[in-house]
Amino acid sequence: MKKKTFNIGSKSMQVGRLSVRQVTSLMDAMYDRERVRLKADLDDAGVDTKLKLEKLREECMLTGTLLKSCFTLSGAMEVIAYAFDNEPPADFDNCDSDMVTNVAAFLIGFDLDELQESSAEGKDQTTVHADKRSPESG
To answer: Model's pTM, two decimal places?
Structure first.
């Protein structure tokens, strides 16, 4: 398991990534809560049942949805709390929101520092496999 050291408040803390099973479990728990909220919103808006199901399925099991949640303080803290058995260290109360985001993203498999370094070096990782999927390569 890949680990990384983060400066959390006044302490250095080594954090390991969650396993695939843990990420899946976290996604399921977050999806279940979001599904209830989304269903209530769609009901309030009078949306057709078929469209509701499509929208709910769209959100189900998307890693991108989980990653996006890391960019909100509440979502990031939810990921961190999950990783620490719902007892995140108090040191997280004294660190900035960027650090909370970085730790949460790392826990689910995204090292934001590495991505920023790669992007700064002109090695945008989002395009590494683009040549295999682009219509021009076809």
So the answer is: 0.71
